[in-house]
Amino acid sequence: MEAMTLWEKLLLGVMVVLVLLWVRPGLKTMFKERREASRQEWMSVLIPIALVAGFVVLLMMLV
Hints:
There is one protein chain. The protein has 63 residues and is mainly alpha-helical. 81% of the residues lie in helices and 0% in strands. The mean pLDDT is 93.
C-alpha cells in the first residue's frame, strides 16, 4: 500500500476538522444536560470494555 500524498493528508485533516465542527453543538448540549451516573451504571459500562480490551490483548499475544 502506498503512502498518502500531501494533498490526501490535507484533505483528511480538513475533513476531520469539519466533522469536529459539525458534532460540536451536539456534544456541548449533551455535556450541559448530562446527569450524574451511579457506581452501578459505570460498572455496567466499564466491565464489558475491560473484557473486550483483555480479549484483544490476548489475541495480540497469540499472534
